[in-house]
Amino acid sequence: MNADIANVISNGLVTGCIYALIGVGFVVVFRATGVVSFAQGAFMVLGALIFAGLARAGLGLAVGLPVMLVVMLVIGGVIYRLVFARIAGAEAFVASIATVGLGIVLEVIALLIWGPEVIAVPQLFNFRSRVHVVGELNFSALNLFVMGLTVVAFVVIVVGLNRTPVGLRMRAVANNPQLAAYSGVRVVRTSMIAWGIGGLTAGLAGVLYLLGSQPDPVTVYSLGLAAFPAILLGGLDSIPGSLVGGILIGLLQAAIGVFVGGEWQDVGAYCVLLAVLLLRPQGIFGSAEIGRL
In the chain, how many domains are there? Predict the structure, then answer.
């Protein structure tokens, strides 16, 4: 395995994991509330900025990351309760446009509070420490942390949705909100949890991206929007699809960056998006009903 292919695999997997975390929150929100949320990029920005503030205050990764996750869980739930619970039942187009406005508002608030400067955090990983796999393929400690945490997040979400009473209520609301309400399920509270999970996973994606590159808020926000090809490829309503779609788009972009040029990475991803919309609108794992939205 030569160095170029090794770079494609290592960089593609890490980027794909970040896309997958953005996507899984999107899917949970969509399945529970029917809202196509364009606010994931803004949640990424908030998560990255909150974590950076905690890290600079002296809280390490072991404390700062859990605190950020709890804060983002609360922010996501509160936003649903204050805004989207009031437009529940509205046309999907109306709710989706509302998330565009929400994303812009959250980004502007973040810029006003923290400023547009690069989000700097203390170095939390030994970047020289690497694990050799095969040939020229090596993974840094940060790479392994990103991939491992992504796997843990997916396992927790899948088990939570399928093995817990909260997950059962979320699936009931996703299938038929009115029938769930008649059965005693608190639809608004359940939807708040779904939005909280969406905020949490997007915030986690923002932190993992921050640890590897220390970007500015606008770049983080743009990455959240760039995840949509991965979400559509996997399927809007498929949690496994968000992981597969994220990994595939991450590998594609890494290959384009190595063999064609970095300026073509987003072009390649959005070409995939157009191809999916034309040939298989529901994505790889999405249901046929999603393809008709």
Answer: 1
Element (H, E) at 230: helix 228-234
Residue 255 lies in a domain: no
Identify the residue with better confidence: 225 or 77.
77
pLDDT in tens, 207-252: 999 988 888 998 898 888 888 889 989 888 889 999 999 999 999 9
In angstroms, the CA 89 to CA 91 distance is 7
Tell me if 282 is assigned to some domain: no
Q: Band of the pLDDT at 88, cuts 50, 70, 90?
A: low
Quick check: 107 pLDDT over 60?
Answer: yes
Q: What is the mean pLDDT of residues 145-173?
A: 88
Full residue range of the structural domain in which residue 69 is found? 3-227
Q: By C-alpha distance, which of 214, 232, 229, 215 is closest to 266?
A: 229
| Tokens found for residue 158 | 């899948």
Query: How many CA atoms does the CB half-sphere of 13 hold within 13 Å?
Result: 19
Give the whole-angstrom CA distance, residue 2 versus residue 14: 19
Q: CA quadruple 6, 9, 15, 18: dihedral positive or negative?
A: negative
| Mean predicted lDDT score pLDDT of the chain | 86
Q: How many CB atoms lie within 10 A of CB 40?
A: 30
Question: Does any domain span residue 235?
Answer: no
Backbone angles phi, psi at 99, to 5 degrees: -70, -30
pLDDT higher than threshold 60 for residue 164: yes
Per the domain annotation, does 56 fall within a domain? yes
Q: How many Å apart are CA 108 and CA 276, to the nearest integer?
A: 32
Q: Are 72 and 200 in contact (CB under 8 A)?
A: yes
In this structure, are residues 62 and 125 in contact, taking their beta carbons and an 8 Å threshold?
no
